[in-house]
């Protein structure tokens, strides 16, 4: 479908971008999925992994509305658009960004305040209708009802381009640039901002914010397609004496400038006989970097849109899908959401701002940031090794290593964006991202430096109770919160270090971390069958309620039901500890069938998408449905996957049951729809589930293609009768990475009743470190 508000020039650019529109996965993507409910996605324009996410903000302040609900700036249920800003997270559980909000205004009077959403005309915000919105990868358009302006957005890697067309061209056009506006906009967040007008008409500026990431600096450069007829730079600070511009100072390259903590700018263009185009670039380094980034991607709106559209077609068409329309749209959009982060965070000249808040230079690669690693190590990054391997090796892993070198603490990122560390969530999950890539044969980075960084992160005693963990073999709850979760997550990361070290011939490192990989046992309570928090004296903390969810308690965003399954490196040992196959299957069933009607989790924002005690809206549950296969019951995995997909995903704005978390929720669906999932990244295996598409073609990094066929797939045939790979029967409950990379045809025969015999033998089960093959 061609967006309804695209001009003839833009339509020409669309057609030029690809002669084969109808068959592209691009055409099935709906960026509106996840913009309602708890998805926290944004509908605006972005290039693959783009530094700029140019998107509408329907509300931008905790003082006005709930921060969590507006973490992405846009919420589908809202009736007004406050403006369009250049930076956003896709699906995060925390809000920030929303940098450099701009809004077109027409008429003689230009309001400089956003106004009240309940009072039309009280400010520069505008009402809008969803019927006027068009969202495609790299493109967004909407008609602003209160001004009659149609706003179109597109983005390159480091730039955003807007086109504003007024319905009544007899009214003068203006642009408001609000440097006070930001997501999670509590008082005092804006530390300082500046704006200046240069003789060539370029507008530049910077601002420093104190939000989720401390002392974050971002600069911009902006150019217009029409000359200015006037402007105003206004400070709205109260009870503060204006001390003038604190920066380089006015010189021959500046016509006007202002600085302060509360700035808003107005740009006037008079009456225009054609739409106004505004090109903007950003840089975390300085204004010069933003100016250079703007120059690095030349062209008007149509040219940038055509280039970005072509880039999205190439990126998305690595996967071709045949399925009923709702499933096809859900999976295509899931792939799209998986390709938004980790985003570019370095300038065109290689400069970037690091974890030490200093400027560094990336040589031979592009610096990436936006690492939501506690979420994305599970499926998002393993998916990228299949669909974006060059980015994984050249950019992501090298950026992680560089961030460790830049870090004042000397460890890998935990949750980082724009090069700045937030220390959010737990674990040292950059480790599995690096190790999984290395074990899959991805190179292009210094493996020795990577291993050194992994070991440094795992032995940094001040972080998250690691000092006690190294002494006691577990994190004690009376010294560190969320100790049960940290113990089992550290143990998995330790196993990943051991795997990479052994592959590199570093036997000493491997032996140390193989021992540490068994530390999950120190938090497992055989009497209750749950992972629990221990105190420093060795006793389990009491009282114990496996259903309790409280922040800062024994577990991270979950409870004992979810975290007791997190032993992906040795599920066979956990099965034995639980009493064997039958007991494990019974406990898994008890988790899914648990009656939660009398439990209240409303105080926990991230707990969404409940199926009993299975919580699909948060990551600790994501591998659990596949664990039936580890206990000899793959058919139960198949049944649970249908239950999850049917209830947790829809091709609608509220179609995600929980935060997309920078692509993890989406990557889960992509893998699951294809019929396999990386339960244990680093094992080089994928557990077979069941497909949810009739046919899919995955173009692999080596140029081969894997064609997945599901014979007889429909609602009445949810079970796998048999599986073949290139005509040979697959009798294991897993596929090896080399089998996937070999390409060919993976064929599922679907049937109405479960095949309880298929892949149920002890020798058919997926990887566990304690089982020799």
From TrEMBL:
- Signal peptide interval: 1-22
Task: Indicate yes or no for the key word Signal.
Answer: yes
The Glycosyl hydrolase family domain is annotated at 290-751
Entry GO MF terms: hydrolase activity, acting on glycosyl bonds
* Cross-referenced Pfam families: Glyco_hydro_92, Glyco_hydro_92N
Q: What class of enzyme is it?
A: hydrolase
EC id: 3.2.1.-
SUPFAM superfamilies hit by this protein: Six-hairpin glycosidases (SSF48208)
The UniProt keyword set, sorted, is: Glycosidase, Hydrolase, Signal
> In this protein, which residues make up the domain named Glycosyl hydrolase family 92 N-terminal?
28-283
Q: What is this protein called?
A: GH92 family glycosyl hydrolase
Record lineage = Bacteria, Pseudomonadati, Pseudomonadota, Alphaproteobacteria, Sphingomonadales
